[in-house]
Amino acid sequence: MTAPADAAQSDNGHITGFGTKPYRSYVLLALTLIYTLNFIDRTVITVVAQPIINTFSLSDAQWGLLTGPPFAIFYALMGIPIAMWADRGNRIFIIALCVIVWSIMTVACGLAASFIWLLLFRIGVAVGEAGCTPPANSIITDYYPPKSRANAIGIYSMGVTIGGVMAQLFGGALAGLQGPDFGNFIGSMGLGGLFSGINWEEVEGWRLVFVIVGAPGILIAALLWFTVKEPPRGYSDPKGATPVEKAGFFEAFKEFGKKPTFWTLSLGAAFVAFVGYGLIAFQAPFLMRVHGVSVSEAAIHYGAPLAAVAALGTFLGGFLSEKLSPRFPAIVAWLPGVGLLVSIPAYVGAFLAPTLSMAFGLWVIAAVAHYAYLGAQYTVSTAIVSPRSRATTVSVLLLIVSLIGNGIGPLFTGIMSSAFMGGIIEKNGLTEAYATFNPGFCGARIAELGEQGPALCSAYAEGLRQSMVATVLFFLVAAAFYFLASRTFLKDRWSPAT
User: What is the CATH number of the domain that holds 373?
Assistant: First the structure.
């Protein structure tokens, strides 16, 4: 159900927002659910990372490639044209269509017969997910007046970390499934005949994760289309602030491109994502290799709680920015930098901690401080341009974040892990033994690796530990860019008079 795009703007829309307060809350909840689904389908692959690595005999560098550049490049390439469509077309329809695309591709990941097919299906997920955030942020700015946007966008941004929690819980629980057990479950529902050609004995748990997690997206897309109204553009901005015609890409670029805040903010967010995506891609393997936990334990006992406290950090970032902005007008731009500086020693301590309990405690502190940045990147980027250019501005921001963060972060962490491991192996004279090394044997089957198995598995774990420490140091670069953004934010902030 949609509202006419040319509906008359309310004189006091910048005070009341669009629709009733309960309905605005419902729309925000619906969009947050979509964003949560976006990150469940995007990050569930990291939950079952080690089983996939073992299935396809991947090195850490190859795993970093799978989770990094291809996804990021196609996410970035599709983001701008979809955002331009969102600046002119029906944003609700665009989001619903994209949800269907990425959900189908997520299911297909579970059917991948090789590394190449899994890579191609992940690209399909990226294409669909590119159409979520730019139109959603544009919709929120039309539903909510300026005074409430920081908190509203902060709540929406919690979809990243809530999605992380759900991915860990669902992925961890489902990863323990065995093919025969799931086949029996399907049969008990009277649906066994539909899957009679499947040999459930050969179906691995990680494949079931993708199928079960991806399928509900189609229903959620339908719910969004039939229950959320398309708001008039600029409704919640001061009267006369929104031009009738919508900005094209080059016109929008001309608007945000001349503002230093956009570029320093984008680079700050990109380097945060560089670290964040690098860490999340190898979080489960780190816990499994260094601390010896299972896939389910890594996800449910540690991954899900860490994602939950990250959601708390996202909420606190938006909440503090809104509450303290009367006293510190530029806080939304510099608060993320403070959080990142706090998170660096906490992360390093967590990765080097000798015990899992100590590591987890420090990791909790780091995650809260780290994710305080998330709402700020959208609040600041939409605040420095006119309503007609917001979706395109966010899409360019996400392009930069995606190419540097998601595109390079996991690949960097993977390459460094392989490099550090190689150095340890060479130093300890394990090169010959490494030629036949199978990482899937580390753990219960370590005896099958022979006399040098423990040393090889130790190098496998230590290389990743050192790589995680090296990755997190890039938060120093990110923090510096956020502090630079805060110096120009107030000057660059958009108003109807500009």
Answer: 1.20.1250.20
